[in-house]
Amino acid sequence: MNMPIRVLLAEDDELIREALVGLLVREPDITVVGTARDGRQAIEQALSSRPDVAVIDLQMPQLDGMGVIDELGRALPDCAGVILTAHGHPYVLRQALSSGARGFLAKGAPGTALADVVRRVHEGQRYVDPVLAADALTTPPSPLTQRETDVLVTARADRPVREAARELFLSPGTVRNYLAAIAHKLGAENRADAYRVARENGWV
């Protein structure tokens, strides 16, 4: 008889966490060996329980899901990571896959989907939720040039302009001009709003 798949589940919302655990424990070939309410606790739990699969919420306190997956990839390379999220933005998909995640699942997916994804990634397959993939594919193209994107990524919502300028090898005035142009293109009120718009659309 095959050993059950050992799963760690990390989700900061207690109700969602308990509901997901409830779904998984019904499966005869899956056992939940640990739960966590934040990213750091997820790392600690994983190191002590050594799961086969870690199901991690994208947005958590202390350390986000991709940070957890990245650390587990170094500490427990045989542990397959699955990211849970409500958003299918292209930048999230790219970052999740580059962080080493094997699966990418929407929180609103059918109840049986999580167990199926756990089995797939345990077998070495990859899985991207089709709803999230469709959302990513229908996101409009970025109106920003590559240079404008680089400036916005470096400056972020609130990084001091002088720091960003130093890293970009530009003058502070040039960076301010870029940020003003970016805000205008995105119809944003200010730099922070422009960064939010770009993030939500998956352009940075």
Short description:
This protein is α/β, with parallel strands linked by helices and 204 residues long. It has helices at residues 14-25, 39-49, 65-75, 90-98, 111-122, 130-137, 146-155, 161-168, 172-186, 191-200, and strands at residues 5-10, 30-36, 53-57, 80-85, 103-106, 127-128. The protein folds into two domains: 5-137, Response regulator (Rossmann fold), CATH 3.40.50; 146-200, Orthogonal Bundle (Arc Repressor Mutant, subunit A), CATH 1.10.10.10.
Describe the structure in your own words.
The protein has 204 residues and is α/β, with parallel strands linked by helices. The chain folds into two domains: 5-137, 3-Layer(aba) Sandwich (Rossmann fold), CATH 3.40.50; 146-200, Arc Repressor Mutant, subunit A (Orthogonal Bundle). Helices cover 52% and strands 15% of the residues. The chain contains ten helices and six strands. A six-stranded parallel β-sheet has the order 2-1-3-4-5-6, with helices on both faces. Strand 3, helix 3 and strand 4 (80-85) form a beta-alpha-beta unit. The protein is elongated, with a radius of gyration of 19 Å. The N and C termini lie far apart (47 Å). 35% of the residues are buried. The mean pLDDT is 87.
